[in-house]
Amino acid sequence: MARDPTGGVGGAPPKAVMERDAVLYALSTLAQTCAALAAFVSALALYKLQSLGAEQARNDHNIRGILAGPVLSQNQVPILPLSRVIEVARANSTVSPGLTSTVSESLKEAVAEWDGFPARRRSATKGLFVFEAWNLLLIGESLVGFNYVPLLQSSPCSFWGLWTAAIGTVAVTGYGVYAWTR
Questions:
Q1: Would residue 121 count as lying in a domain?
Q2: Domain total for the chain?
Q3: d(CA 153, CA 31)
Q4: What is the pTM for the complete model shown?
Q5: Statement: residue 15 has pLDDT above 60
């Protein structure tokens, strides 16, 4: 690239031009930061998904325990398929003969918690996919950007592109952490 007398490259003012090493450093840092974030936050997301599975198993155990005795015999509780247990729980979640109001209320709460699991899992999974897609996109762009260092060096848009990538990464990471800590 030819420098003009004012110090810019290709007619661009000097402040709008990034140095070659700065471009390389920015691209490298962006890729490394996204890779580290992807590893760390993905571990959090997978932990959240495993925790949801454990909560759901505990909830299944609670529903079976509440139903044991007043509604189902002790022999039926462990062998009934989960779909049938939930069906029985829904049918008995109102005060009915054989159930006290306390048992009925506990069953109603357990069924409501059970019904909330699909939405919670969907939210956590969606957050993971959005986070991973954003990070992989930025890692890919950073690696491809190494092929275009002279162009990026002379472009006044590089400044705003880096700001957009940085703010986007913070926003997507924040959303992911929010989705997995609810």
A1: yes
A2: 1
A3: 18
A4: 0.61
A5: no
